[in-house]
Amino acid sequence: MPTLLLSPAVHRDFAEELRAAAGPGLQFVCVDPAQPPSAQQLQEVDIALVSLDVIGQSTRTVLTPYMQLFCDSMRAAPGLQWMHVPSAGVDRPVFQALMRRGVRVTNSSGANAEAVAHTAIMGVMVLARGGLHWMHAQREHRWAPLRGPEAQADLSGQVAIVVGHGPIGRHIARLLEALGLRVHKLRHTPQPGDAALGIHGYDALRALAAEAHWLVIACPLTDATRRLVDAQVLAALPRGACIVNVGRGGVLDEDALLAALASGYIAGAHLDVFEQEPLPADSPFWDLPNVLVSPHNAGSSRQYRERSVRMFIDNLRRWVQGDALRQEVETDRTLRTASPP
C-alpha cells in the first residue's frame, strides 16, 4: 500500500475518502510545521498531494515557510513516484525539478476553469463598458458619463483571440461567443477538423492579430508559449485593442506591453499574472489608468480545493488499480491520452 505525503488539513477533511479510494492500508505522512516528518518517514513516501492550503500565499518563486517545508519534504523523499498539484500550470521550479528527477505529475486542470473564465470575462467587461473610467471618476467624486463619441463600442460583432484551448480557454471562448463575439481559439497542437471550429496553432497568432479587438491569454508557460505575445504581435493588433492575461506572466512581453499601453496603441489591459510575483510596488502597471491589476487571483473560489483533491482521489484509485492516470503531465507539458477532453 502507498504512503501519501499531505497537509494536516487535507488529512483531517479527506482521510476517509482517501482510504476508501486506496484501501485501508494507505499510510499518511503529514507535513506539520510543529513536528516535521522525519527522514525515516520520508523514506516511505510514494505519493505527494500538493493542496491549495500548501501553496497558500506562495508565488511561483517566493514561497511561504510552509510551502518551503513541504517542498523540502518532497525533495527529501527518495521514493517519491507521483505528485499531484492543485494548478493547471507546472512551471514552479520545484515541480520542474521533481519532474526532471522522474517523478510523475498530475495537475488539476479544470478545477478552477469556471472561476478563471469568469474573471477573464470580468476584465473584458470592465474594459469594454468603461469600468476603469467610472472607477477613476468615483475616486474623484466626479460625475462623468460616457456618451456620444466617448461611448463604448458594442461588444457584439467584435473579434477575440483566446490563446490556450484547455478547460479555461474553452470556457472563456464559449462565454465570449455568448456575448456575440467571433472567437479564434489557439492551441499548441491543432487537431484534424480544428480549422472549421475556428481553432488554430500558436503560429497563427500574428496573422490573426490584425483583426482582433481582444487578445485573451489563458495558456500555460512552456517553451512554446514563452514570450509568445511579443512586441511584433502587439504591433499587429489594431490600434485600440485590449489585452486580458489570466495565463502566465512569461507568455507576454511586459516591457513591450507597457510601451504599447503608455502610447495608447493598446487601449487597456486586465493583468492577473506577471513575470515577477508579487508585482513590485514600483511597477508602472500599478499606476497606468488603462490597466486593471489583480494579484494572480483569477482562479480563487471556495470550491476549488475540494475539486482539486477529488481529482487526486480519482487518480489515487487508478494508481492502486494500475490504471492510467488522468491529466498526467509530460515533460513537454502535454497531457496523456487518459485526460478527459
TrEMBL record:
D-isomer specific 2-hydroxyacid dehydrogenase catalytic domain sequence ranges: 71-329
Signal peptide residue numbers: none
Record has rRNA-binding as a keyword: no
Keywords of the record: NAD, Oxidoreductase
Top-level taxonomic group: Bacteria
InterPro entries membership: D-isomer_2_OHA_DH_cat_dom, D-isomer_DH_CS, D-isomer_DH_NAD-bd, NAD(P)-bd_dom_sf
Family annotation (PROSITE patterns): D_2_HYDROXYACID_DH_3
Molecular function via GO: NAD binding; oxidoreductase activity, acting on the CH-OH group of donors, NAD or NADP as acceptor
All copies of domain D-isomer specific 2-hydroxyacid dehydrogenase NAD-binding, residue ranges: 123-298
Family: Belongs to the D-isomer specific 2-hydroxyacid dehydrogenase family.
Protein name (database record): D-2-hydroxyacid dehydrogenase
Originating species: Ramlibacter agri
Species lineage: Bacteria, Pseudomonadati, Pseudomonadota, Betaproteobacteria, Burkholderiales
